[in-house]
């Protein structure tokens, strides 16, 4: 009989892996033990068929586990083991992992819908599903250190919890109606009698708005098919146009949106993200336009908890499920906080008596022709780890502090990167508090002791100031990293590009980031690796009249681009409602009008050319999102790219605007013009990127930056690069939500030695 | 004007322009002053200095000379001092018109008389063309803080109310308009004014006045940040309460400027205990330079040094100290 020492790496703690191994061992006649340690799970096994046992470890791993590697070596037992046991954890830093929250599994769903002690129970869960990170107060992940500590287990639950053969063996949030959390429906500060779920469904049917305490925060819910309810919600939330997320069962979603196989799989992922789904084409039942004005897709998620399943069962239609916050603020998580901030918005509160320990928004993802893409990394994905690329094995621990508007932080440790969930706009006071809490919290949770701190080159990003203060306090090196270099590094890292790999051509189409020449960048072709880069080409800079004000009002960008193209007359005619003379002077004299090569602002300019946003955008990215939505309505043959010019290393949009004006005069459809813009921009950057690869200077092309959240732009750029090795984002957002991951890699690469950043 | 190394031409200039304007008692190289004002037990001397550089040198509502007197008078006054004496030093670009210097000297004298201070000493240097922009002025000031008066940025306590004496940003907006390179037609005037009288009146009505700061460069935002830092507490502003002229607001919106960071030269922020806020406001409003006085926020226990603004939408935005030039941050 053979004996082995089997090491399992990956996401294998807190996901029912040890009981799974225990059951597997019994099935394969294996004796020995299994335990958690700082590196993952360790199995000491003796048995007749260890190859089959090892294969099953990977093939049959529990739903929430992710096995990155299995390493096995011969092992000599001092005495032949008897039976198989789950041994106590070993080593300092063991049990420092916690899995993200996971959507209700089929077994639990069946259980709440069938007669039995958990029928109709809103808080059922097991080892394969349920809350994790959102209830965690401290590690190790034990019930006593979660917000379930307030609910002593009843004997029935205790028996399940202690039985290794039960799917609730060591399920920390185990609960039942006898011992677990309970719901209350509150109207005007008083609990409403009756079944909270049935009553909530009734209120929603009546067109009311209900604040619902969910996993990582409050939602505001209303009937998605009721235009009056939608109008009320938009008015009360002061959110005129930003799309609402929707929730429904899969069959409901299919009635209102196209759901491909891959999209269905993404919806059903344990992370239960909001998935953007197309509403174009025939045979779909439309929802009121107020759900997502000007969009050709809707953000849908499946119910992720028993509470949401039961509510949808009782309600019977799609629900708006938007985050319960004031515009710009993070979601409320406490009952008192929710009553205060949402009291003027919600008619009722569906509450429960389990606290939310951690604020986590809903994640947002979408499918593209190149695979899944993460727009907002949040509940269900955090705190998942990302493996560091080859060559980073000896990396010291690094902290990176990310960007300003879609902030997130990243830690590296033990060959893994831990990219936090989306934290938000750091100029908001509550978000700023949350950001610093997250930093302190993650350092404590993961016992993180950075040897260096990375941040953006922009000194006035609050995250950069925080990084500088932390670095100074701890006497650590601070590494400011150029914004688009960090975007590039994030894309390289996600694609496992080795530290010593050849340079990559990075098409970075983005909003704004401070360049190392003091101007503001954002439409870049970089050639580089983790350590450094050169600026191979970029959009011809134009002023940003009004600084950040140019971001809010897309027409400002149209003005400067038309003027730059010598089309002042067209600007005068199209933008006559605006104070053009003053802004032209401000632009000419540099009064709050810094030069920028931003691709995001070019999107704004063109969206303004097509009159998609009249005055100010009502939310960040509105103009660009409307432009993509419009382009998707164009017939495929419309994709003739607009021409862009080339002046040395500058990509000039002037010819594009001239061609557009011609289209406009001949009465071309706005959708076709929007499509031609996308195709033109894609080609304008793909051509020089291709040249870098074909001349041997780059080994591949990486597509990154916030503009690549736009699936159409991504697909058109990929098509223009056909035949070349391509790197795109999947789990790490292409937008600033992924910045910290890139910063961490650049900082680590520099800490490991090698060349410095070049410009 | 073409004056090089000192000599007679320079002496003529000094005598005809500055000494003439600031008499009596005449400007000497060294002023000999009575220490009577300091005789009172517990009185303290206040001493401050500031340099003034502004383009254009003359603007609606004032000129660089008025700015130089008001600025130093206000520096003394917000510290609780009664301003007594000023010095004035001029760096003049070769070629600067003597008539302009005469006008500047005259406004300085007028403003000094109004504020009850005397310009008692000074200096003049002429530098070659291009080495200065027409004229720069440096003033230093001496004042006396009466016994028992304790105004300091660190004195603010939770619950104290933040008051301003009038609209924000007029000076910064007027200067921008006066530069003439933007097509701004506006009647905006700089708010440039001495605030010593206002502070005395406020103190008389609200003896608990904790501190005052004139919101000059960096605007009200910087003044508030300094106070929050010194007092180790938080300050929360109410966006809807901020007094802004519609013209200034409009200009800021178009040019993407934040009025909280626009310079003021006759606007201060003062903190008073809540129960004295009404009295303080009434006292301010009784004077022309305080006619637009309002409460704009309050101090609270909270993160030390943090200034936030409750927006019209109900959210709370952080109001930072301005660090260098504002570069766009939105990605
Ligand atoms: Fe970015
Ligand atoms: Mg000063
Ligand atoms: Zn389950
Ligand atoms: Zn129970």
From TrEMBL, chain A:
Catalyzed reactions: an acyl phosphate + H2O = a carboxylate + phosphate + H(+); C-terminal L-cysteinyl-[HypE protein] + carbamoyl phosphate + ATP + H2O = C-terminal S-carboxamide-L-cysteinyl-[HypE protein] + AMP + phosphate + diphosphate + H(+)
Active-site positions on this chain: 18, 36
SUPFAM superfamilies the UniProt entry points to: Acylphosphatase/BLUF domain-like, YrdC/RibB
NCBIfam families named in the record: hypF
UniProtKB keywords: Hydrolase, Ligase, Metal-binding, Transferase, Zinc, Zinc-finger
Enzyme class: ligase
Protein name as catalogued: Carbamoyltransferase HypF
One MF term in the entry's GO annotations: double-stranded RNA binding
InterPro entries, per database record: Acylphosphatase-like_dom, Acylphosphatase-like_dom_sf, Acylphosphatase_CS, Carbamoyltrans_HypF-like, Carbamoyltransferase_HypF, DHBP_synth_RibB-like_a/b_dom, HypF_C, HypF_C_2
Protein's job: Involved in the maturation of [NiFe] hydrogenases. Along with HypE, it catalyzes the synthesis of the CN ligands of the active site iron of [NiFe]-hydrogenases. HypF functions as a carbamoyl transferase using carbamoylphosphate as a substrate and transferring the carboxamido moiety in an ATP-dependent reaction to the thiolate of the C-terminal cysteine of HypE yielding a protein-S-carboxamide.
Species annotation: Albimonas pacifica
Ranges of residues in domain Acylphosphatase-like: 3-88
The organism's taxonomic lineage, starting at the top: Bacteria, Pseudomonadati, Pseudomonadota, Alphaproteobacteria, Rhodobacterales
Pathway: Protein modification; [NiFe] hydrogenase maturation
Family recorded in the similarity comment: Belongs to the carbamoyltransferase HypF family.
GO biological process: protein maturation
EC number(s) per entry: 6.2.-.-
Annotated ranges, domain YrdC-like: 194-380
């Amino acid at each position: 009989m053979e004996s082995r020492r089997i090491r399992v790496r990956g996401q294998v703690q807190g996901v029912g892996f040890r009981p799974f191994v225990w059951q597997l061992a019994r099935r394969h006649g294996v004796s020995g033990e299994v335990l958690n340690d700082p590196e993952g799970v360790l199995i000491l096994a003796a048995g007749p068929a260890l190859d089959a046992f090892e294969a099953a470890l990977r093939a049959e791993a529990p739903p929430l586990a992710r096995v990155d590697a299995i390493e096995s070596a011969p092992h000599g037992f001092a005495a032949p083991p008897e039976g198989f046991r789950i041994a106590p954890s070993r080593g300092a830093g063991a049990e420092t992992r916690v899995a993200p929250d996971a959507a209700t599994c089929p077994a639990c769903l069946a259980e709440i819908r069938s007669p039995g002690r958990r029928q109709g129970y809103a808080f059922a869960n097991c080892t394969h599903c349920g809350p994790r990170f959102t209830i965690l107060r401290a590690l190790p992940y034990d019930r006593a250190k979660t917000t379930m500590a307030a609910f002593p287990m009843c004997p029935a639950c205790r028996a399940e919890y202690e039985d290794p053969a039960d799917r609730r063996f060591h399920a920390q949030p185990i609960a039942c109606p006898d011992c677990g959390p309970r719901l209350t429906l509150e109207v005007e500060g008083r609990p409403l009698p009756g079944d909270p779920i049935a009553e909530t469904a009734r209120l929603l049917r009546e067109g009311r708005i209900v604040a619902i305490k969910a996993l990582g925060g409050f939602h505001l819910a209303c009937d998605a098919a009721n235009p009056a309810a939608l109008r009320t919600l938009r008015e009360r939330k002061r959110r005129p146009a930003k799309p609402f997320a929707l929730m429904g069962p899969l069959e409901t979603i299919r009635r209102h949106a196209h759901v491909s196989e891959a999209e269905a799989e993404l919806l059903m992922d344990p992370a239960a993200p909001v998935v953007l789904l197309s509403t174009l084409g025939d045979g779909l039942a439309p929802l009121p336009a107020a759900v997502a004005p000007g969009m050709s897709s809707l953000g849908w998620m499946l119910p992720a908890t028993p509470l949401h399943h039961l509510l949808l069962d009782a309600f019977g239609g799609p629900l708006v499920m938007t985050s319960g916050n004031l515009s710009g603020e993070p979601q409320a998580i406490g009952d008192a906080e929710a009553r205060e901030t949402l009291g003027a918005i919600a008619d009722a509160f569906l509450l429960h008596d389990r606290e939310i320990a951690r604020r986590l928004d809903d994640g947002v993802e979408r499918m593209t022709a190149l695979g899944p893409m993460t727009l907002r990394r949040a509940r269900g994905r955090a705190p998942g780890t990302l493996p560091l690329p080859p060559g980073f094995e000896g990396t010291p621990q690094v902290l990176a502090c990310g960007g300003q508007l879609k902030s997130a932080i990243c830690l590296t440790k033990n060959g893994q990167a831990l990219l936090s969930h989306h934290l938000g706009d750091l100029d908001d006071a509550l978000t700023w508090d949350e950001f610093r809490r997250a930093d302190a919290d993650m350092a404590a949770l993961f016992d993180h002791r950075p040897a260096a701190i990375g941040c953006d080159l922009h000194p006035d990003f609050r995250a950069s100031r925080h990084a500088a203060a932390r670095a100074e306090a701890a006497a650590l090196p601070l590494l400011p990293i150029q914004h688009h270099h960090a975007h590039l590094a994030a894309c390289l890292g996600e694609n496992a590009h080795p530290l010593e790999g050849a340079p990559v051509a990075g098409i970075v189409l983005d909003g704004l980031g401070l360049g190392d020449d003091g101007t503001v960048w954002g439409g870049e072709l970089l050639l580089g690796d983790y350590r450094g880069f050169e600026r191979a080409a970029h959009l011809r800079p134009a002023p940003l009249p009004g600084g950040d004000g140019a971001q809010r009002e897309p027409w400002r960008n149209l003005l400067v681009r038309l003027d730059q193209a010598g089309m002042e007359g067209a600007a005068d005619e199209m933008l006559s409602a605006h104070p053009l003379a003053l802004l032209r002077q401000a632009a000419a004299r540099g009064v709050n009008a810094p030069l920028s090569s931003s691709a995001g602002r070019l999107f704004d300019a063109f969206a303004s050319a097509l009159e998609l946003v009249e005055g100010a955008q009502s939310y960040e990215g509105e103009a660009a999102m409307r432009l993509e939505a419009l382009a998707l309505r164009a017939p495929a043959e419309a994709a003739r790219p607009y021409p862009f010019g080339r002046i040395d290393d500058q990509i000039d949009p002037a010819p594009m605007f001239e061609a557009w004006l011609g289209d406009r005069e001949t009465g071309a459809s706005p959708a076709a013009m929007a499509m031609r813009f996308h195709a033109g921009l894609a080609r304008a950057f793909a051509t020089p990127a291709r040249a870098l690869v074909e001349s041997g200077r780059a080994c591949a092309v990486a597509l990154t930056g916030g503009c690549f959240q736009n699936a159409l732009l991504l697909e058109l750029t990929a098509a223009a690069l056909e035949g070349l090795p391509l790197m795109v984002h999947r789990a790490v957002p292409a937008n600033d939500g992924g910045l910290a991951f890139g910063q961490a890699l650049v900082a680590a690469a520099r800490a490991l030695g090698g060349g410095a950043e070049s410009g | 004007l073409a004056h090089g190394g000192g000599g007679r031409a320079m002496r003529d200039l000094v005598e005809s322009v500055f000494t003439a304007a600031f008499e009596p008692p005449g400007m000497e190289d060294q002023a000999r002053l009575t220490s009577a004002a300091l005789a009172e037990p517990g009185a303290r001397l206040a001493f401050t200095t500031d340099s003034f550089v502004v383009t254009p040198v003359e603007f609606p509502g004032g000129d660089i000379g008025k700015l130089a007197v008001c600025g130093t008078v206000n520096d003394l006054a917000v510290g609780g001092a009664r301003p007594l004496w000023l010095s004035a030093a001029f760096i003049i670009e070769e070629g600067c018109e003597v008539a302009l210097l005469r006008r500047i000297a005259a406004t300085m004298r007028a403003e000094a008389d109004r504020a009850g201070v005397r310009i008692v000493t000074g200096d003049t240097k002429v530098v070659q063309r291009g080495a200065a922009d027409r004229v720069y002025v440096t003033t230093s000031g001496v004042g006396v803080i009466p016994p028992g008066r304790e105004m300091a940025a660190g004195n603010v306590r939770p619950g104290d109310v933040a008051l301003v004496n009038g609209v924000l940003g007029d000076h910064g907006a007027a200067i921008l308009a006066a530069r003439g390179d933007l097509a701004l037609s506006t009647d905006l005037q700089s708010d440039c004014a001495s605030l010593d009288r206002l502070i005395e009146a406020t103190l008389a009505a609200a003896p608990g006045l904790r501190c005052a700061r004139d919101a000059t460069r960096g605007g009200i935002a910087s003044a508030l940040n300094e106070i929050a830092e010194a007092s180790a507490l938080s300050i929360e502003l109410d966006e809807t309460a901020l007094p802004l002229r519609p013209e200034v607001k409009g200009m800021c919106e178009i040019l993407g400027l934040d009025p909280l960071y626009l310079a003021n030269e006759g606007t201060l922020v003062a903190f008073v205990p809540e129960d004295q806020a009404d009295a303080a406001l009434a006292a301010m409003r009784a004077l022309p330079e305080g006619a637009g006085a309002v409460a704009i926020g309050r101090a609270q226990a909270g993160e030390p040094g943090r200034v936030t603004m409750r927006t019209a939408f109900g959210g709370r935005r952080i109001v930072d100290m301005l660090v260098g030039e504002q570069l766009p941050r939105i990605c």
